[in-house]
Amino acid sequence: VVAIRVLKPNGGEHFQVGSTMTVRVEVDSTLIADAIVKISFNGGMTWPLLTRNQSIPVFSRTFDFSWVIADSIYDEDFTGTFTVSDSCLIRASDYDENHTDESDSLFSIQ
């Protein structure tokens, strides 16, 4: 049984700054009640936080998180990162990061 899986973006997509990106994650809600979604702009070297404590409805199989793509994002250390990149990935996990999944391959933001 897969506890959590990134369905989209899962690689090969192209997004524009200012557009809305929908992150879709499949979960086993019997194992995960709250999820964390992170994004990498450098192929997985660093992972700024997109959302924390995304509640998973009971008996839900998927949840969507929409993000209006800004030209920069700040991580927990308030370090700014430009979002324009050809090396983006999404990571979803449970709160303790015991169960994680990432995009299967890179996507881009222009």
Explain this structure:
The structure is a single chain. The protein starts with a strand and ends with a strand. Strands 2, 4, 5, 9, 10 and 11 form a six-stranded mixed sheet that branches. The chain has a three-stranded antiparallel sheet with strand order 1-3-6, with no helix packed on it. Strands 7-8 form a two-stranded antiparallel sheet. It has strands at residues 4-8, 14-15, 20-27, 34-40, 49-55, 62-68, 72-74, 80-82, 85-94, 100-102, 107-109. The chain is globular. The chain is mostly beta strands.
Short description:
This protein is an all-beta fold and 110 residues long. The chain has strands at 4-8, 14-15, 20-27, 34-40, 49-55, 62-68, 72-74, 80-82, 85-94, 100-102, 107-109. Strands 2, 4, 5, 9, 10 and 11 form a 6-stranded mixed β-sheet that branches. It has a 3-stranded antiparallel β-sheet with strand order 1-3-6, with no helix packed on it. The protein has a two-stranded antiparallel ribbon with strand order 7-8.
The whole-number mean of residue pLDDT values reads 87
Which structural class is indicated by helix and strand composition?
mainly beta
Strand content: over 45%
Characterize the largest beta sheet: strand count, sense, and whether it forms a barrel: 6 strands, mixed
Put simply, the count of helices is 0
Rg of Cα set: 13 Å
Per DSSP E runs of 2 or more residues, the count of β-strands stands at 11
Helix content: under 10%
Uncertain runs are none
